[in-house]
Amino acid sequence: MVQIKNESKQEKINQLRNKQESEVLDFLNKEWTKKDNILQLFSYLERISWFDYLPDLPLELSMMQCIAIKDEILMCGGDGRNFCYSYHTTKREYRQICLYPWEIQLWGHTVVRCEGEDDKSKNPKVTLLSFGGSDRRRRHTFIMHYESVWSTDSVSTTAHTNEWIEVQDKIIIGASNGHNLTGARACVGGKHNNLLFVTHCPRNINVINLQTYEYIQTINSTLPIHTYWLCYHGFVKLSTTNFILISDVETIGITYDECDRTFHFQILPNITTSFSIFSNFAYLLLDNYILVFGGKCASSTITDAIHVYNVRHKQWRQLAQILPKALVDCYAIASHDQDFIHIIGGDNHKLKCQNSHYAIRCYYLILTKEKIKMIIDYWIRIISFNRLGWIKEFVTCVAEYV
């Protein structure tokens, strides 16, 4: 087991923070009391202070799969990378968990959390399922019984803990059907959380029994989308049998009836973007919003934009905030306490694999009236200009800006 620290990186981050604070103070010496200047101030502060630059990943990773468990974020492999790590959100350190078997070449695989103890337990034990592959790349279906690599308790005596092993009867998802699961997306659902919903190319959604790993025969399993080759899309679980799929710029509501094993679809408003085709983005569900980070279009243009879909009002919009850099094939995941969103790895605008790791305060993206003053208080605190007091124009300007 390897423990990785990056003190030199943290020193550079602190130096950058100090430089940014100095720049803000210089900025504040200018005329800023007018409304337009206050808006400019917010725009400036938003660009430099809302991202927390965390220690670099142990190696460059893209197309990775992540799972949040208590104070950990598990990173399970990536594009051509078989390493699995745990990142401790409090210690801000990485530890290696294991490796995928050497004969497996990962490319657009999928990892989900199947079952396990509640994260409130002292050392939760969970089961992870990993699957993927196609006719061109060796298919795999593995499970891992994970126990925290950060635990100070005695070493587990359970066999095959923290390693990928084959499932019962060596069943491989997608093999008998010839499914291409590269870039597939999956969610665990059903009334008893015993069903695996998988969306994959060309335009299919399937249901798999997690107890037997057998496909369930369903009705209406072809997705009503225009794209012919569905992959690297978004698939979000709203409830045990309700989902939203984001493919290119299309948004589809999906409902599954467990009694008659039938899918029902609803065409929702398209994502608001200048791109004609939109894919390979990071996404997550936070409260009643779906957040989409980065991505690319048909011309392979990489974006730093952040989009948000309001599930309740069925509306898309592009946020004023942007990523620190344009990214594609990165992963977005919320911390267990829902305070931060982590943006992990990915490829930059030159399609070079990155080892970057950022954390974003959730309330910077999903704002309510109650949180506006909290944001300004945070800005004031981190740049240490206590000589400025609160003025009523701040609330008005922030409300207009966001």
TrEMBL record:
It comes from the Eukaryota. This is Kelch motif family protein. InterPro entries: Gal_Oxase/kelch_b-propeller (IPR011043), Kelch-typ_b-propeller (IPR015915), Kelch_1 (IPR006652). It holds the Pfam family Kelch_1.
